[in-house]
Amino acid sequence: MPQPTLAFGCDLSGRHELAQFFQAHAAFLKRFRLLIPQDLEVLLPDILHARPEIEFIPEMGQGAEVLITAKILAKEITAVFWWGDYWPGQSGEMDLVIRYCARYDVPLALNSATAWAILTKAARYPHACLIFNPVAGQGDARQTLSQIRSLLKPYFHLTVLTTTPTTSTESLVKQALGSEMDTILAAGGDGTISAVAHALVGTDIPLGVIPTGTANAFGSALGLPGTIPAACEVIIAGHTRHVDIAACEVRGVDDSACKQTMILLTGIGFEAETVERANREVKDRFGSLAYIWAGVQQFQSQFPFTAELVVDGQKTEFTAAAITVANAAPVTSVLAYGTGDVIMDDGLLDITIVAPADRLQAFNSLLELFGSAIRKVAPNRDDIIGLRGKTLEIKTDPPQKVVVDGEILGTTPLTMKTIPQGLVVFAPF
């Protein structure tokens, strides 16, 4: 569906009021294609520079009225906005635009109050449900929720559902979907965001990510800003992209099959043990340093294991200390970068096997992988193997714990396959 087009105009007396309107609603206006007076770029260079959805037009009386009425006639204009001292019959150019708006049922705003009313209707004022995890992160949950509400409420019919120890995130998403929501927003850490994403797979309903937790790897991988106001601006702007996910199956605690989708990465060996060490008490005490602390502790006690991998039908065997399978990963997830880069919409799993002979090699391997993550270049070491594929089977001896998107899911054996373009997310332009 093409973006709706809004036409803006003003005389000299209305230039600053129009500029103030743009400043107040800059993120929201990214939902539209805009026709605006050329001289407005001088007043708002930071907001209007290099915006592909903006077309600059002349002032009224210099050709703007001809362009706007022609587009109204072609049914290309959703609404017209005008600021200035207008009196009927005194401005032939504006009278022409008003007559065309009346003739072809195009909404017309002549002040900021009616402009905002028309703007929200043109955007269909979507219904959004916010899934909020109050225990994520280390801040004041009430203050965080109040901030998110104040940022989003002008642009959405907002419903808030809060996670509790007895209410699963998945059940809240199902409740939201049953209410015909246009979009689902998740405020929390990777656990909350992953759980919401899992429930949205295949629905084509966009996910908005507001990072408030200890770790926010998915937001980082998407290129989302790390602050709540900036993350909300991305959602308000309305730009979405499709990303891959993966279907996973491992052995559960009772030897039954345990299935889950993955949006970020799966770890076997070192990473799984590290996540288990970084429990809620440690995360509450140390924040993001909890994972570093746990990694150092696990580094002292990690033992190698034998692994049999079948990638797209091709079988290989390794002795490994860690296996990481990534769909998306921030640069801080260095164990995911055995292929040099992790692309979340290429339809492939990125598989990294780290097989050091001793602790010194293990340390050097981590340094090499860190450099690979920064440079986006595959590492050049014999003890780091990078593979890519659409399907994957892993068996280990002895069985190893498997962590999927930051949560322990079960143990090997593990099977995975990609689901290309399986999730819609709000993302920066």
Give a summary of the structure in a few sentences.
With 429 residues, the protein is an alpha/beta fold. It has helices spanning 15-24, 40-43, 45-48, 64-73, 92-103, 112-122, 141-152, 169-178, 190-200, 217-222, 228-237, 270-277, 280-286, 289-299, 359-375, and strands at residues 5-10, 33-37, 54-57, 79-83, 108-109, 127-132, 157-162, 183-188, 207-211, 240-251, 257-262, 265-269, 305-311, 314-320, 322-326, 349-354, 384-389, 391-397, 401-404, 407-426. The strands form three sheets. Strands 10, 11, 12, 13, 14, 15, 16, 17, 18, 19 and 20 form an eleven-stranded antiparallel beta sheet that branches. Strands 3-2-1-4-5 form a five-stranded parallel beta sheet, sandwiched between helices.
**Which CATH first-tier class of the largest domain would you pick?**
Mainly Beta
Euclidean distance between termini CA atoms:
17 Å
Proportion in helices: 25-40%
User: How many runs of DSSP E, i.e. beta strands?
Assistant: 20
Q: Mean pLDDT, as a whole number?
A: 86
Q: Indicate the proportion of strand residues.
A: 25-35%
Shape: elongated
CATH level-3 fold name of the largest domain = Tumour Suppressor Smad4
Give the helix/strand class: alpha/beta
- The structural domain count equals 3
- Characterize the quaternary organization of these chains: single chain
Q: How many helical elements? A: 15
